[in-house]
Amino acid sequence: MNGERGAYRLTGFACAATVTRATAAAQALVVNGRPVADPVLRTAVRVGYRDVIAFGRHPVVALYLELPPEELDVNVHPARRGALP
Length: 85
Prior knowledge:
- By secondary structure, this protein is mainly beta.
- The chain has one helix at 39-49; strands spanning 2-5, 8-14, 20-21, 27-31, 34-35, 58-59, 61-66.
- It is globular, with a radius of gyration of 13 Å.
């Protein structure tokens, strides 16, 4: 998949709705080259699949988001594993 809107670019892979897991551990989310575990991004992925996968299942994705650095909170404590504002 490839998508671009203004200064935002999304690339990566999203498995078919028939490929799911019991947890979100098989979701790789990278923002500006940095792996993140952001609940907002995970929710966006879940919402995108909600009509085609069973409740409680999680899609398998590897998504790479690039956006202007000034739109990121770079002061997030490492224990939080990265977050978008």
